[in-house]
Amino acid sequence: MRWGGDVSLRHWLDKPERPVEEFECLHIFSQIVDIVNIAHSQGIVVNNVRPSCFYMSSFNHVSFIESASGSDSGSDSLEDGLNDNQGLELRDSCSPLLLAISQQQNGTRVPLAEDNEEDNDRNVGEGERKQPPFPMKEVLLMETGWYTSPEEAAGSTSSIASDIYRLGVLLFELFCPVSSREEKSRTMSSLRHRVLPPQLLLRWPKAASYCLWLLHPEPSSRPSVSDVLQSEFLVEPKDKLEEREAAIQLRERIEEQDLLLEFLLLIQQREQEAADKLQDTVSLLCSDIEEVMKHQSVQGNNGSTAAEKGKEDLMSSELLLMNPSQTDDCLGLGSRKRCRPGCQTQNAEEFDDNMEDGQNSSIMPSQAQGSLLFKNSRLMKNFKKLEAAYLLTRCRPVATVRPLGRSVSRHSPVSSDGRGSVVASERSSISGLQPRAQHVVARQTGWISPFLEGLCKYLSLSKLKVKADVKQGDLLNSSNLVCSLSFDRDGEFFAAAGVNKKIKVFECDAIINKNRDIQYPVVEMASRSKLSSICWNSYIKSQIASSNFEGVVQVWDASRGQVVTEMREHEKRVWSIDFSSVDPTLLASGSDDGSGVSIGTIKTKANVCCVQFPLDSSRSLAFGSADHRVYYYDLRNSRVPLCTLVGHSKTVSYVKFVDSTTIVSASTDNTLKLWDLSACASRVIDAPLHSFTGHMNVKNFVGLSVADGYIATGSETNEVVIYHKAFPMPALSYKFNTTDPVSGHEMDDTSQFISSVCWRGQSSTLVAANSTGNIKILEMV
């Protein structure tokens, strides 16, 4: 047995319910006998053989720590003995031999009187801290009486035989623990008359017999120390004790080696798992490289044919499917070609000209092809994240679960209208959507299609360009916070609404094409309360819905600037409204009263902050809540959600559908999360496809909008941030700056934040507004 640290032997003996182990007791006793034997061999009487004069270290070593007066004539008085035990230093009369024993056993140096006074002063504080707790004065007084031999009590001087008697008392205490002070006093009083407790006689008969031998009333009948050391009572257990100690040490060494072995095996297991994973990744890369090279070969063979036909739209579609090393200079959206940042403009233009002349793309210098990767600063800066996104895309199992709810066929538009690539947004008109060329879709198979498309879009754009600033006329109004932006069915007009209690409708192209100091709205509609959300009807061009802070939902006719319908079903502020794209007669709303949907009510326990219909269904609805979750319901059975998305740590402020089975949510936990609804097998999804980080959002509504895989959101750093659904890091960003009215210089105001964003339905343009009412029309270039 080992103790937690140095402890007084008296303290250890008096511990309640102390277990008695024979080897342990004999080990302690034999060490004390050895100390006494050394003193007796020098003719020194150790009259302080008492538990309070010894302490045990954490390794079962017993050391002599108190005064051990050596004298051939007379013992110390009772008062002197008590004072000796209460002292914290060795008396001058202490035997040098016992001091050496104490130093050897304790492993520390005990300062002597002849030591340098300076050293003593330096070590006194530490010595006082290291002293074990000392017994109470009453215990020491009783202990002195217990350990006084009969001849000493009769007035005779202390002798070597007296030390043997004290060894007998100590042996008795080792083998006979008691539970209380009163029982201790009775037991020790009986011991003076050599009356032993029955439990000692029954359990430890050899120890009891040995105690009686050491406690013989006649000093001459007691054994000598050498007899004690040579007795079978100590010799046989001592041999066993040595064997036991050796076995314990061997077991400890084996355990230590086992620990080391397990540690090494664990490292080997983890490294082997990492090696297997790396090997799988390398095999996957080899397979993908081979697949991409096949696509490259096929596209290279077909490239000349496409060039000979001179069809620019087909050529552009083909480029999207080629290996990135061959299309680095001319990746774009639809028919628009953009020079990727970091590439050599001259080579890119030369390549474009040659392609239009019908020449093969192999004229690109091999040196340029090999170095394009390192010249693209955005790719290299985000290389690790792009690598992680690639591995996630490749290792994600293909969902086999059917999409939740009934799916309505709907195509994503990618055709060109002459102004640039068509980008489908969450509010695009149904009639304006046109499918891709079927031969292009057929060729985009496997993992290459989504990842390459995302990589091309991520790298083909370099910045957000300001196309126009919307400078409003009501500059004297101090409350210009724009809470919501929305484009109409055709992307011709956009509306802005906020705390100024007005819905302002602007003509987008007129603002872009006419550089005016102040932009006046085409229509302005006044509300009785602050407005929180607006939404255009995707079928009726002039119809727009609004919600306000009083819980009122209104439907307006923008062409006349009048309210058509007013609904007062909510009891508290309405945060969000949404028209169904499939059934334009359906309007959903979410409120602080924890409810939503006009024709029916879904009651929730927490505030509803956002609602959204899927793009292809009017029978389903998703909404985000203040309980940090997103709920997806089938409106035909609104008692329980079809699916609950769990992953955000704060309020979910926005939800938007990317496609029929993919949804993106925004939260005030600084993240956007992308979810795959088709993976919902147990009504709960707790693992998003991606977590988008790079913007700041901890307390405000900052806006969310999606278009053709691009996700736009605001930031409390007064920035618009663009993500692509394939990658978790920002692709583009633009910071709103405040213009000083006096100097005209731009300055950064940390109190401002982006409050709303919205994509234009049929272009790569979006409109964004911040907390001061500053509205900008931005374009990805």
From TrEMBL:
Superkingdom as given in the UniProt entry: Eukaryota
Entry-linked PROSITE patterns: PROTEIN_KINASE_DOM, WD_REPEATS_1, WD_REPEATS_2, WD_REPEATS_REGION
SUPFAM superfamilies: Protein kinase-like (PK-like) (SSF56112), WD40 repeat-like (SSF50978)
GO molecular function terms noted in the UniProt entry: ATP binding; protein kinase activity
Keyword Repeat carried by entry: yes
Residue span(s) of domain Protein kinase: 1-234
Keyword RNA-binding: no
Gene3D superfamilies in alphabetical order: Transferase(Phosphotransferase) domain 1, YVTN repeat-like/Quinoprotein amine dehydrogenase
GO BP, one annotated term: photomorphogenesis
PANTHER family referenced in this protein's UniProt entry, alphabetically: PROTEIN SPA1-RELATED 2, PROTEIN SPA1-RELATED 3
Name by which UniProt lists this protein: Protein kinase domain-containing protein
